[in-house]
Amino acid sequence: MSIKKLWTKLFSQNDEAPEIALHVSGATVRHRNPFEELEVPRNEEGFSEEFINKWVVPFYMNSLSNADESTIKSFVDAAKEINLDTVKLLLSDFDWRTRITGAFFSAINNYTELEDIIGRHLLKSEVCYAGSGYCLALATFQTDNAREYLIKYLDYYLNRKDLWFDQADAFCALEYLDKEEANKRLDKWNLFVADKQYWSLDKSRQHFNSCILTLEKIRKAKNDG
What we know:
The protein is an all-alpha fold and 225 residues long. Helices cover 62% and strands 0% of the residues.
């Protein structure tokens, strides 16, 4: 059973079930964009409850920006056991919980083999909440390809003032990889946030940098152990 089925079976009782399933999965804002036809793997078989309880439930709600030692240890222990195929499966599911967990472990274990999947997920922006994980993973990969995904994302989504998505995370990730390229988009950023009173680039930077520090702690503890 997929994670969205576990969640939606609590709510779905009628013909609204498909819409509820999409909403619970994170597809809260459906929009047209030039990246819709990009191919990404799709998990159609779903996962067992045991799989979800092991690889998703303990991790998807954790904010890496303020993770305590217990949370860090949980990520370290799981990162030692998880493998590339499992992380790819997580990224292939149509649910923000599985995808952000897959992005976290991609970053921790430096699974650059999954870079194109993560980059395409970011561009397609099919589900909410997972984008911050995609941006963290791309930033930690530190490749030219990762940088290009962030540039493509910003060059399109900074022009979509109606979509309040992951522009801040993407900007911070690009700034982390290439400050000069990020600076070229500061004017676009300022136009984008002109009607967004509570968006603060400084706060986003603080959050992003805290997440990066936590990822570095997890990686170090995993390698030292």
